[in-house]
Amino acid sequence: RQQFGYINRKGEWQIPPRFNTLLNFSDAGVAPACEDKLYGLIDTQGKWVLQPKYASICEFNKDGLAFFDEINSWDNGHGYVNAKGNVVIKSGRHLSNAMIKGIARAEYTGSQYLTITGAKLSEVYFSWGEHFSQFGVAIARTRDRDAGNLPSNRWGLINANGSFNLLSDTLQEPLTDTNGWI
Fold this sequence. Notes:
mainly beta, 4-stranded antiparallel sheet, 1 helix
């Protein structure tokens, strides 16, 4: 079985090979690593900051959080941990691993979004919504009923502050790409 470690700038082993998988270090000096099929977080000396207990942990995002999968994530869900290994956001099976501008989709349909603190972005639920883009907005469609004070079945943009701006009522459905361009 192949194992991995880290070398320093001199080409010497900083952390000798012992991991099944390892990823880049964050700005905070921790990295996800896998040992015996479970993921945790290590520091730059190879010491566990968070003992291995997750099915996977992704690299840290620009917001300083790393997405994790619980063991049996279909039933137990997903979340985000900080560099200390503390769970910051815990949600169900459809939490997105794409957190942008501190916001992640909490449902695969985009009906609800969570902020970097785990709070709901808005009390309004949508029938569909895209991931947030690098521009700090996401395309979404209001529900056909129970859309709060918004008109039903309308496309618009959700802003990072939770506000919703309607697009033209003549718009049938916006086409987006993976970078958030409409």
